[in-house]
């Protein structure tokens, strides 16, 4: 296995070299199917009026093992493109995920505090997160991805695929998939610098350069975020100490066309984050303390794709690594460390053919086979020392059919082999079709599996002891929806019902974790609307109703019954000034309250509404001024019991860009 260590070391060294050698990285001025979107997808995001996609032909990367148009996806999927993110002046990606139906976000404090994202009532570690084709879920952090540290650094698109996707992507995709794709280089060498500052002594500097032709492309971007922040423990409960946050992220994305039918791509990503935190005391909750957490994440992927038979037969090969190191300090003294590493090898082959149906060559078939092997390492030291490994291999078969560009079917099956648990089988079926020129029907059914995380099995802290007897969580999901396209609004309205049955749900119990003996049920309705009534105006909205039952008559915590959002963006007649405004509503939801012995009871948190506004003015093709106000109404609320949230706050900044 020595060659694996060499490969990993090379990736990390390359990342560090990019940071050290490039004076741009820290300037204070400003395939496999999930790797990158196609040219059509990129082109579809270039309209100055585009935000959330309303084009049914928009390419969706994560909805199948190959890139498919959104209209061909039987699964429920939402796509937010770069213009949507820029018009809303999104800096923390978790903030914009609140606009997506079926998604609930909870942050335990201010910027940099642990941030969880749940899809359709599934737990946060049941959502698989990709960044440029790399699985970034943290093996050392309960198997979930901490969205606190994901900044909008040259992101091209955000895809959210809802429902069980384990048949495609394996264990962590039991609840859904979030796929982040960053921008690739194009055209002559060009760059962009952004500088901004505002409330809580916050300042952020970002820099990017990129270039690309038909033969190669590269993009290098970096950002520094620094804020004094707010108290992680709720100020309304008497806590006053500010908890700051620092984030330095660098991303490098490149590719080369070696031959007409052979391409090679490389992605490298490095993150350093430092956030002040507060203690949690049984019977009280979060309280001021002198603690902080440092996170270092390094990831990379090298992949190649070979096309044969005039692109009818393709082969993709890749290797990726994600390495996360978390350190906890109290009054400057290190007291707990966790490290999680995932090394993944993957191979995929796709074969395409067309056959006749009713004397027409309009029946397109696609056959896919994929094989994956993952090696996970978990290490923790502090209260005790734990060093564990787990190996997994997965094999996928998928068939897809396009019947006359009107009806679309996929059938997927997966076999997973695991060194710690019983082998598992999962499946997924989808159908999408046009009932007429304006109505699209979509439905999906599938099963999911989530293996207990290394921490749940073997972790140890003063308040937690792992349970090595935990069994994998399993679910069965189905949904049925109808999408109605309104020509006059250049948009659509979608209504979808979803239902999930969960077996062996893992929950905390005292100082450990257990599998619930009863089946849990989750069901609900998602309503979404995307419209572009004029060339200058865009309006998007969503509403979700979620009903949860843990099998004992209790609601699952931190899953609001009702969420809603509305967002509008208007370009003034001068074609230079844009006004964007939005509101996000989160209804009542339960959370846990702990006594002095960490016995818990459920309490209900109040509903809240956040109103945000943004303004930008394009002075010329090179310079843009912008500003935004978040929580305009200065709403007081708690997302997590006893943890603080930000009041009204704002930022202003300038972007300068140009090229050769």
UniProtKB/TrEMBL annotation:
Residues 260-632 form the TonB-dependent receptor-like beta-barrel domain. Pfam families: Plug, TonB_dep_Rec_b-barrel. GO terms for cellular component: cell outer membrane. Gene3D superfamilies: TonB-dependent receptor, beta-barrel domain (2.40.170.20), TonB-dependent receptor, plug domain (2.170.130.10). Keywords: Cell outer membrane, Membrane, Receptor, Signal, TonB box, Transmembrane, Transmembrane beta strand, Transport. Residues 73-177 form the TonB-dependent receptor plug domain. One of its GO terms (molecular function) is siderophore uptake transmembrane transporter activity. It is found in: Cell outer membrane. InterPro entries: Beta-barrel_TonB, Beta-barrel_TonB_sf, Plug_dom, Plug_dom_sf, TonB-dep_rcpt-like. CDD domains: ligand_gated_channel. PROSITE patterns: TONB_DEPENDENT_REC_3. Residues 1-27 form the signal peptide. PANTHER family: HEMOGLOBIN AND HEMOGLOBIN-HAPTOGLOBIN-BINDING PROTEIN 1-RELATED, TONB-DEPENDENT OUTER MEMBRANE RECEPTOR. Belongs to the TonB-dependent receptor family. Hemoglobin/haptoglobin binding protein subfamily. This is TonB-dependent receptor. It comes from Alkalimarinus sediminis.
